[in-house]
């Protein structure tokens, strides 16, 4: 997806091994479920006012372009906002076709800000095979360290004291589980 309105904003998503990820404007995991929902909404968008004339639309004069490729096919669709008697509409055309179509005005909302909407919001990517878990502050830290399977130690240290003890595995798993559900509320930048 790409828009050209005052500045270029290009978002590229790719799928590998059943997982969607961003390749532009940054490289990061996407929320695969949200990507599939968005693609489904895009592909099922209702078209209206089909016109078999291309003169209203110049391919170089567009506000947004969507390019979808897969299954040995590639689709490229161009969109722009059109003003008619104080009413705005969104018109589009597929590359190498002559029929212009009109879309619902809330279509822009559907394709806007994908880099934030479709980003995976999990703050921590915790796998089943962690060996340690450390929380540090300026002058102290807490470290959970795996000794062997299902056997963990807790080490807490500050500027004056150090404590080492065994960990209750069920409590530790609850802690890890809580961390795995922490989500980012709002991304302040698309440049991680």
How do you describe this structure in short?
It contains four helices and 14 strands.
**Structural class estimated from helices and strands:** alpha+beta
Low-pLDDT segments, ≥5 res = 1-7
DSSP, total strands: 14
Strand content: 35-45%
Taking all residues together, what is the mean pLDDT? 77
Task: Indicate the topology.
Blueprint: E1 2-5, E2 7-10, E3 12-16, E4 19-24, E5 28-29, H1 32-43, E6 48-51, E7 64-70, E8 73-84, E9 87-94, E10 100-103, H2 107-111, H3 114-117, E11 132-136, E12 141-148, E13 151-157, E14 162-166, H4 169-180
List its traits.
192 residues, alpha+beta, 7-stranded antiparallel sheet, 4-stranded antiparallel sheet, 4 helices, 17% helix, 42% strand, disordered N terminus
Task: Describe this structure as you would to a colleague.
The protein has 192 residues and is an alpha+beta fold. It is built from four helices and 14 strands. Strands 2-1-7-8-9-10-6 form a seven-stranded antiparallel beta sheet, with no helix packed on it. A four-stranded antiparallel beta sheet has the order 11-12-13-14, with no helix packed on it. A hairpin with a 4-residue loop joins strand 13 and strand 14 (162-166). The longest helix has 12 residues, at 32-43. The radius of gyration is 25 Å and the shape is elongated. Mean pLDDT is 77; it is low at 1-7.
